[in-house]
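Quick one: structure tokens for this chain, please?
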Amino acid sequence: MFEKIKDYSKIFVALGAVLYFFGFISMNSLLSRFGMVSFDVVNSRFIFAGFFSAIAVGASLIVAGAMAKEIPLNELFDVKKNPFWVRIWKYVKFFLLVNVVNVLLFSVFTIGKQNPIADATSLKFKHLFGDRDCVGMYLEKFNLPGSGLFDYSIKWALNISPILILVGLLLIWAKGRQGDGDQRREKAKRKKGSGSIAVSSSGQGKYFILVDLLIISVFSAMGFYCFNKMLTLLVDFNAFQIGFDLRPDILFAWFYPNVMLSYLFINGSKNKFENGSWRNIFNLSEQTDSSELLRLYVVPMIGALIIFGQVVFPRIPFAIGGGQPRKVVLETMDKKIFGNGNLYILGESSQFVFLVDVEEKGSKAYQVSKSEVRLFQTR
């Protein structure tokens, strides 16, 4: 009985440490956008911040793992194991899974509205190959119905399609040259009629690879679009003029690139995942293939947490543990109102309060000692 309680206590302590670590990175990445940082040893806000970031990063890993199982890179263009319509259905399932999980995350975090981003020129499609790119310049002027993501992705795929078609034809030619010897031997063993049918079917499957390349180009364009959008959504002083409400497209701009990055990482290390147990993966005291895999993943995971803290976390309402700034009125110990404009609180530690004073002439960030604060009133 006591042994089980001891084991469970270790799990809870480890889980709390992970959440605290995640929250520490998310909170400090937000404060660092304003030139401040908090090194508190004990701060309950880190647990709440870590809860949201752990859900988001964990969801991206789960989706990426499901995608790696359904669409492994080494079998993507294998027309024998994955016929054309099977591959198309896998692409559709991946797209639906990403959007469904994104909506679920959004429902967990918050529901709100936000004004359009002030400067979003990088989200509009621009021709890719210079002034002589007639196709790209025509697509740039042609307005497709639907969202900016749909418009950008389709135009990008169409603009790059001649190159993809050329690459696809070269791949088909190379595979055909490689398989000529095997086909001759198969024809000699089989009857003439059945052999011609098999070759025709195989040739059809190879030419369907062009469709795969176009779909992959759309997924890649979505990644580029979301990355550019993340750059426009990084929180700074201008964000106080726009607002901090969370929208599904804002969450998707962070979620989708992390899923794709995790997918590429899992595919590169798939054998280690398949051959490793959970005990080996988290056995960080010894050098094993599985624990080495976790060590390698720390770098992209920390990157995802930092961007989460600068894009998503400050748009999660404070009432449910998020980092959304609150408008306050602060009175100092000498009974004077602090600040000259609209005052917002970003967070607090055991010794300091982190504030942003938003003015028309210019905004400023302050790290104020709690010993100098008499009271502050939220609005």
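The two ends are 51 Å apart (CA to CA).
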